[in-house]
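All the exercises in this workshop are built on plain-text protein records. An example says more than a description, so a record of this kind follows:
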Amino acid sequence: MAVAADPAGAAFGLWQAGGHIGARLTDAPSSVLWNECMVRDFDTARDFYAAVFGYGFDDMSDDQYTYATMLVDGRPVGGLGLLPDDVPADVPPHWMVYFGVPDTDAAVAEVDRLGGRVLADPTDTPYGRYSMVNDNQGVSFSLLSVTAEPELTAAT
């Protein structure tokens, strides 16, 4: 296990699986749905992740934003985006984890009830109802509605 930072400044962890292989449940309520890296130097970060991890990229950028999905064998495994100019300078480059929830509004209410803080009110997106929150310790994460039935992957 190691913790490192890319040259654009986003910290991340590395882990070599042993007896515990990691997440076996994905794309379902109560699981990790997505991870994305948001930076101020998109090209440097893209080149780094391509060289270190062998990721390919599917560029989804347009006039409004710079964003690409990270690909392994043609399958999206995460995202890389440019922090917009209107994001305050004190917001560092970072990785964001998205957790699936059956009801984003209910999950946000629970975050608030338990002492967390809402950073972005629930809103509908093409990918589901979304919100960004802090837990009661100040750690940021995102919530996204998902209705898929859980699927466990076989351990390899």
